[in-house]
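Good morning,

Attaching, inline, the backbone tokens for the sequence recovery test we're adding to the shared suite. The designed sequence is right after.
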């Protein structure tokens, strides 16, 4: 029986050793389908998911992950990739969706204004936000926005590094959706940041402009797969009610 959200969150642990038992590829794929329902900045969905089921490829990736047990014993791997470089393509996809969804000639004024505002966002605001050249334009935007910010609230994260962070945050939200979905059906995962990302890209044929967000080992937890009891700092140390 599938777990509730709270049960799945409580069940999820970073499992570092998996049983030598296969897991259902289609069920893992369904969990990835849940991943893409995660919230994402400006609905740009700057992510891709490489679902690795081939044993030889898993072995190569495990080597690129420094032979961590979470990769070496995994039955499948999911590589979460941040694709900031696809912002133009994703803007066009959103524009096409808006033109289809609000394509009626007799739209009421409220919906027509909403359509114009959304189209303006993807056609003008997003290019200004994401366009850069060797980091130069981003720094100019950053400096201009800091000056404007002296007089009114303004979005200040305009540099190339800032937009990379935005893409990785969205990819991380999607990865969490995936791992909670896996936990809900009794499958285990372990997100790994330790890897030779250049080798990972070469193995999977990932473009150099893309960035590896994390590699997630998947399987059924072995008795020794969870290394110890869960530790969290006291809730009072991280919770602030204003």
């Amino acid at each position: 029986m599938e777990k509730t959200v709270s049960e799945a969150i409580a069940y999820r642990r970073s499992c570092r050793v998996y049983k030598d038992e296969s897991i259902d590829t289609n069920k893992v794929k369904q969990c990835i389908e849940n991943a893409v329902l995660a919230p994402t900045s400006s609905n740009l969905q700057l992510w891709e998911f490489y679902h690795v089921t081939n044993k030889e490829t898993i072995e190569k990736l495990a080597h690129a992950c420094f032979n961590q047990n979470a990769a070496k014993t995994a039955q499948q791997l999911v590589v979460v990739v941040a694709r900031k470089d696809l912002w133009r393509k994703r803007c066009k996809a959103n524009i096409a969706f808006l033109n289809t969804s609000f394509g009626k000639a007799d739209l009421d004024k409220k919906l027509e204004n909403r359509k114009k505002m959304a189209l303006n966002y993807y056609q003008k605001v997003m290019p200004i936000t994401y366009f850069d050249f060797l980091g130069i334009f981003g720094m100019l935007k950053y400096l201009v926005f800091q000056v404007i910010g002296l007089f009114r609230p303004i979005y200040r994260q305009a540099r190339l590094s800032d937009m990379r962070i935005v893409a990785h945050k969205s990819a991380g939200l999607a990865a969490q959706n995936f791992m909670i979905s896996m936990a809900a059906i009794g499958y285990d995962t372990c997100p790994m940041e330790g890897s030779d990302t250049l080798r990972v890209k070469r193995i999977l044929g990932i473009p150099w402009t893309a960035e590896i967000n994390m590699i997630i080992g998947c399987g059924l937890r072995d008795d020794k797969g969870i290394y110890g009891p869960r530790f969290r700092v006291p809730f009072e140390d991280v919770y602030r009610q204003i």
